[in-house]
Amino acid sequence: MSPAVFSHGDLRLYLLALLAESPQHGYGIIQALTDRTGGTYTPSAGTIYPRLAKLEEEGLVTKTVDGRTTIYAITEAGRAELASREGDLQGIEAGLNDSVRLIANEVRQSVQEAMKSLRADLAAAAREEQQGASSSSYREASARADERIASREELRRADASINEFRARVRADLRTHVARGGTVPSSLVSQLDTALDDAARAVTSALAALTH
Questions:
Q1: Which among 16, 18, 45, 131 has the fewest CB atoms less than 10 Å away?
Q2: What domains sit in the chain, N to C, each tagged with a CATH number?
Q3: Pick from 141, 198, 187: nearest CA to 165
Q4: How does pLDDT run across 63-87, given as a tens digit for each residue?
């Protein structure tokens, strides 16, 4: 679930800001929000389109239908409201920047901790060798260090696979909706079930490895 990046009313104002930069279709707006929040907020079509419809009712945006694509553009009234709330918008953008910096710091810290642990493993193996440990003991220590390194590499691969799956499914769903398609609740339920089954399979496999 996406975190509550925008407080009440902030998303409405930020949508106007995005459209003030250039006209956009719904999927483009969703992608822009995802990119500008560093991936911390990925709104659903069910979140964005009703707000765009409300802005249209208020005369703040217009929409143009081109085949299956609907393009939204800000009106002069929308620009006027945006200008009157410039201070609020600056506060929103500052909050988004803080969120992105927080994510970057967390990633940096994770990498630093992994490197620190790796150095500790290698130092421990070196100490065992220097203290006159038998070649067998040294080989075992080296093997354990190699296993830890390999495990970290496999963990990165698993993260990449999960992120790739998430991106592919999200892109397929958004493209489908942007082209005028619908996403039935039964499909989402099937997706939830499949993900739950996959998660349980991974948990079961990990448990088996510890016994």
A1: 131
A2: 10-87 (1.10.10.10)
A3: 198
A4: 999 888 899 999 999 999 999 998 8
